[in-house]
């Protein structure tokens, strides 16, 4: 006598078959990505690949280099495509490349300990934290810094990282190193923003050069560069009301 399949099992059966059929495809995509990462070359020279991952487009892979640059490649590495990949979703175009950049920024910043930042927070536990790449010679950085007390009052902590726009040989880089070498970094940052002289020497072991390099790798091109908690980068000065709205804190 043939046993009847339970109704629940019947409803799951197509999905089980589909899942089983997808497993080889995922494994194949992983194998291709691994081969690309190991063998990708230009002019016979291996490329400094950091990661290769599959995309929603069949046969197209996202390649990220150690420099932070990224592009797309076909399975054998014979053709490249530079630009952003969009999903044509029901609610409009979704920039998948920018979503990936946001995730990478968020992960990179999460790895920086608070001890290597200049932190401004209010008395209460912050509702949100933004990371800002800053330069003391930047007028819009000064303008943003003037709003920090208001942002703190509204529950937004501001964590500064160094980004001397003119490079590590600039006066701004020296000032930022003085800030990081100060016993009271927040007070030294206040002094730097106001153009005052900072007493500390720029001779301690400090992360300014590393943070500048990180900013370049993350796509920072000017200051201030505000990074939201989800990794989204907002270039330039943003008024407190707009930043509050972007963080979804209007009703809190």
UniProtKB/TrEMBL annotation:
Highest taxon listed in the record's lineage: Bacteria
Residue intervals of the Disulphide bond isomerase DsbC/G N-terminal domain: 31-98
Record bears the keyword Signal: yes
UniProt keyword terms in alphabetical order: Disulfide bond, Periplasm, Redox-active center, Signal
Subcellular location: Periplasm
Residue ranges occupied by any Thioredoxin-like fold domain in the UniProt entry: 126-247
Cellular compartments per GO CC: periplasmic space
Main location: periplasm
Signal sequence interval, chain numbering: 1-29
Pfam families associated with the record: DsbC_N, Thioredoxin_2
Function recorded in the entry: Required for disulfide bond formation in some periplasmic proteins. Acts by transferring its disulfide bond to other proteins and is reduced in the process.
Family annotation (PANTHER family): THIOL:DISULFIDE INTERCHANGE PROTEIN DSBC, THIOL:DISULFIDE INTERCHANGE PROTEIN DSBC-RELATED
Similarity field: Belongs to the thioredoxin family. DsbC subfamily.
The name this protein goes by in its record: Thiol:disulfide interchange protein
């Amino acid at each position: 006598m043939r046993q009847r399949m339970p109704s629940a099992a019947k409803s799951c059966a197509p999905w089980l078959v589909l899942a089983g059929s997808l497993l080889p495809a995922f494994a194949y995509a992983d194998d291709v990505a691994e081969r690309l990462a190991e063998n990708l070359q230009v002019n016979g020279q291996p490329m400094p690949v950091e990661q290769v991952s599959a995309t929603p487009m069949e046969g197209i892979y996202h390649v990220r280099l150690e420099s932070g640059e990224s592009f797309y490649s076909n399975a054998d590495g014979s053709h490249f495509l530079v630009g952003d990949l969009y999903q044509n979703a029901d609610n409009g175009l979704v920039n998948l490349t920018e979503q990936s950049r946001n995730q990478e920024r968020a992960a990179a910043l999460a790895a920086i300990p608070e001890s290597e930042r200049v932190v401004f927070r209010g008395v209460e536990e912050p509702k949100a934290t933004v990371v800002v790449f800053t330069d003391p010679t930047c007028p819009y950085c000064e303008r943003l810094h003037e709003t920090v007390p208001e942002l703190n009052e509204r529950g937004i902590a501001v964590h500064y990282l160094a980004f001397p726009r003119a490079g590590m040989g600039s006066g701004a880089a020296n000032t930022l190193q003085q800030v990081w070498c100060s016993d009271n970094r927040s007070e030294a940052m206040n002094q730097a923003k106001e153009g005052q002289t900072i007493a500390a020497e720029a001779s301690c072991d400090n992360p300014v050069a590393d943070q500048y390099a990180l900013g370049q790798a993350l796509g920072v091109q000017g200051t201030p560069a505000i990074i939201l908690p989800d990794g989204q980068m907002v270039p330039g000065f943003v008024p407190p009301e707009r930043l509050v709205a972007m963080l979804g804190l209007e009703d809190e």
